[in-house]
UniProtKB/TrEMBL annotation:
Residues 139-288 form the Fatty acid hydroxylase domain. It is found in: Endomembrane system. Pfam families: FA_hydroxylase. The chain crosses the membrane at residues 15-33, 64-83, 104-122, 185-203. It is a multi-pass membrane protein. It comes from the Bacteria. It comes from Flavobacterium aquicola. One of its GO terms (cellular component) is membrane. The lineage of its organism: Bacteria, Pseudomonadati, Bacteroidota, Flavobacteriia, Flavobacteriales. GO terms for biological process: lipid biosynthetic process; membrane lipid metabolic process. One of its GO terms (molecular function) is iron ion binding. This is Fatty acid hydroxylase family protein. Keywords: Lipid metabolism, Membrane, Oxidoreductase, Transmembrane, Transmembrane helix. The keyword Cell membrane does not apply.
Length: 355
């Protein structure tokens, strides 16, 4: 489906800005190298002394710590009744499947990509970036990984054909750890920045990737949680300067919950923006961010039919049998601008049933 000319123009402009942003860490590393007369005084294999103690902590978090962290937060959410008894039926099934399946499927996929495919594609490039200082590798991966994910996420909202591959994540009528990994299988498999980061690790940036990955996971867990840890920053005036920086730099519960709202008519919801994952600054730069320091009253998609878990997880391989569902057989998405003879059945995108 064709995009409107205005949308195409905006995308071209923002993609051009993104290309410039992608070059910034590369330019910084190059200048560092030149200012040191081509002498490499350190590499990413050597951590700054103030971070050395944190290496085993981050390593353990990556292997078993983060899942435990998620489970603990989930227990707190359930104990506090923050799901309002909504985690039932198909909601429970799709959340559990989406949490477990990638942990079984992804390791062999990434292993094949990293150990078999990359050496074939780039046979003489293994560890060629091992000379890059830690801060340079961290900066490079943080930008490359998260900006790429911003675009992956944004395009799945703005390109009608892609929307239903991401729709599953927005179908949850609640926020919390339970729905954090709730995604369509195809959306997850083609998660572009995962392969980009794996490539950078192959090139020799494993240690910076570890630190970026763990920090990003903590931020994303916090942003999706129903525990609004950012509220004290808005409540107490002395913390307002910190809040101003924090909410523009990283995703917080307030900004990300707004992205999952089921409406934008209340001035709080912003499902057509607030795309940032680790960094919210991308939304600031591209004008897709909305900061209100308030939380939506309701979440999800108003046209949600509680589709079968297999349809949500494996669409379009399996279709929904629910009448009127956007995941049913014969439903085609069309651009928002084409409103003629169209019914708004979804708060994020217009869809039309073809007879």
């Amino acid at each position: 489906m064709a995009l409107s000319s205005k949308t195409q123009k905006t995308l071209k402009r923002d993609l051009s800005i993104s290309l410039l942003i992608y070059t910034l860490p590369v330019l910084a590393i190059y200048l560092y190298f030149k200012l040191n007369n081509g002498i490499v005084s350190e590499s990413h294999l050597t951590l700054p002394s103030f971070l050395e103690f944190a290496k085993p902590v981050f390593a353990n978090l990556q292997t078993w710590g983060l899942p435990v962290f998620m489970i603990v937060i989930g227990i707190i959410e359930f104990a506090a009744g923050l799901y309002d008894d909504e985690w039932t039926g198909e909601e429970r099934k799709i959340d559990i499947v989406s949490f477990l399946a990638p942990k079984l499927i992804f390791p062999p996929v990434i292993a094949f990509f990293s150990l078999t495919l990359l050496p074939v594609l780039f046979p003489n490039f293994a560890n060629t970036l091992s000379w890059v200082p830690f801060w340079g590798g961290f900066f490079l991966i943080a930008v490359a990984d998260d900006l790429t994910q911003y675009w992956y996420h944004r395009l799945h909202h703005q390109v009608p054909f892609l929307w239903r591959f991401h729709r599953t994540h927005h179908s949850a009528p609640y926020m919390g750890i339970a729905m954090l990994n709730r995604q369509n299988f195809i959306y997850t498999v083609f998660f572009s920045q995962i392969y980009l980061t794996a490539t950078l690790v192959y090139l020799g940036l494993g240690l910076p990737a570890l630190f970026v990955g763990v920090l990003k996971s903590i931020i994303i867990i916090g942003a999706h949680s129903s525990i609004a840890w950012d509220k004290p920053f808005y409540k107490y005036k002395v913390l307002h300067p910190i809040a101003w920086v924090l909410e523009r730099l990283i995703s917080t519960p307030a900004t990300h919950h707004a992205h999952h709202a089921d409406t934008s008519g209340d001035g709080i919801g912003n499902f057509k923006g607030n795309f940032g994952n680790m960094f919210f600054i991308w939304d600031i730069i591209f004008g897709t961010g909305l900061i209100t320091r308030k939380f939506p009253k309701s979440y999800g998609i108003r046209s949600y039919k509680q589709e079968e878990w297999y349809a949500q997880f494996l669409w379009p391989i399996f279709k929904s049998k629910k009448e009127g569902s956007a995941l049913a057989e014969g439903v085609l998405s069309i651009p928002v601008s084409q409103k003629k003879e169209t019914v708004l059945v979804d708060s994020n995108v217009y869809e039309q049933v073809q007879s």
